[in-house]
Amino acid sequence: MQRPMLSAAFFQRDPLVCARELIGTELIWEKCSGIVVETEAYLTLNDEASHTFSRPSTRAFVERNAAGAVYIYMNYGVHWMLNVLVKGSERSGLILIRALEPRRGLALMKTRRGIEDIRRLCSGPGKLAQALNITKRHHEMNLCADPRHGFARDAKQKTKVVADPRIGISRAKDFPWRFTLAESPFVSVPVRPKVGRPLTPRKSAMSLPAR
Questions:
Q1: What 8-state DSSP symbol labels residue 162?
Q2: Are the C-beta atoms of 100 and 34 separated by less than 8 Å?
Q3: Helix axes 106-113, 125-132, angle to 10 degrees
Q4: What residues of the chain score a pLDDT lower than 70?
Q5: Domain contains 167
Q6: DSSP string of 82-148?
């Protein structure tokens, strides 16, 4: 049974809520797909780690695009990175898709990555972009308009999500805005002991404040 795709309304909420609730969804990308097991949230205002803090081109992207648009950039001139634009009523942001648990198109992903270990196929934002053949040509694509590219969710599925500080950045490092599927072996970096915090209905991503 095909699961419903996430609509634009999903991405018209607080970035932290969206980043948390993307965990457990299935990212469908043409012939391949994977369960989202790791995301990171970046705010468009007052977040020194976000591209909008220093890049006018990124601020322009946010202004001209609707929620659910793809933001692609190249990291260190080597790896493409997949981000999704979120526009909430009070604040907006970009969500970096950091890792997937591969589900469909494994042979194709292995060929693109040149490895056989399924746990290493998409265990990082650059790796998953290579495995799914995501490049700059997908920049500004609407992930809510084409069933071949987007997120699917089982409304009945329950996931245990852990929040811990973002990684791989030099500024605003302490915000617990990296979200992972609890105990998943497919994440890019294991959650640090005594740092990751399980999220419950009483302690949701919304409660994690911006600076």
A1: E
A2: yes
A3: 110
A4: 1-2, 194-211
A5: yes
A6: EEEEEE-SS-EEEEEEEEEEEEE-HHHHHHHHT---HHHHSSSHHHHHHHHT--GGGTT-BTTSBTT
Answer whether residue 158 is part of any domain: yes
Query: Which amino acid, residue 187?
Result: V
Give the E-state strand segments of 44-187 in sequence order.
Answer: 70-75, 79-87, 92-104, 149-152, 161-164, 178-181
Q: In whole angstroms, what is the distance from residue 206 CA to residue 40 CA? A: 14
Structural domains of the chain, count: 1
Say how many residues make up the chain: 211
Tell me, yes or no, whether 2 lies in a domain.
no
The residues facing 191 across adjacent strands are none
> How many CA atoms does the CB half-sphere of 201 hold within 13 Å?
1
Residue 57 backbone zone (phi > 0: left; psi -120 to 50: alpha; other: beta):
alpha
User: Domain for residue 105, yes or no?
Assistant: yes
Which pair of structure tokens corresponds to residue 27? 């990212």
Domain with 188 in it: what CATH number? 3.10.300.10
Residue numbers of the domain that contains 73? 8-202
Residue 53's CB is within 10 A of a number of other CB atoms, namely 17
Residue 209's closest CA among 46, 39, 50, 36? 46
Q: Could you tell me which residues are beta bridge partners of residue 73?
A: 81
Six-digit token string for 197: 């915090």
- Amino acid (one-letter) located at 123: S
For residues 125 and 50, the answer to whether their CB atoms sit within 8 Å is no
Confirm if 128 and 122 have CB atoms less than 8 A apart. Answer: yes
pTM for the whole structure: 0.90
Question: Tell me: the pLDDT tens digits for 113-130?
Answer: 999 999 999 999 999 999
